[in-house]
Design brief:
Oligomer: single chain
Structural class: alpha+beta
Keywords: Membrane, Transmembrane, Transmembrane helix
Number of strands: 4
Distance between the termini: 6 Å
Helix content: 40-55%
Number of domains: 1
Strand order of the largest sheet: 1-4-3-2
């Protein structure tokens, strides 16, 4: 039996996309020196940190989940909370 919760995995994917866009933008900006690239890169990096620290929490125990990223297990897979051992995927808690 599964319970519906807010889809924190979708928030996680959005925040990681912001991170993966922000880093190359800032590196490219070192060579080009455009002010708007700086503002865009820093804004995307800020969005990543805000989403990671406010929305990336376990839906059961409400503790902040680790920020580390593993390509093999984090995207489109069941995530397991390291604190309460709850499994969740796509907005549902899996019993």
């Amino acid at each position: 039996m599964s319970r519906k919760v807010k889809d924190i995995m979708k928030y996680r994917e959005i925040s990681l996309i912001c991170l993966f866009i922000a880093i190359p933008l800032n590196v490219i900006n070192i060579f080009l020196g455009f002010r708007w690239l700086t503002i865009l890169g820093i804004s995307l990096l800020a969005i990543f940190f805000i989403m990671a620290f406010t929305l990336w929490r376990c839906p059961v125990c409400k503790r902040r989940l680790p920020l580390r990223f593993d390509v093999d297990t984090d995207l489109n897979d069941i995530y397991r909370c390291p604190y309460c051992d709850t499994k969740f995927l796509s907005g549902e808690i899996i019993d």
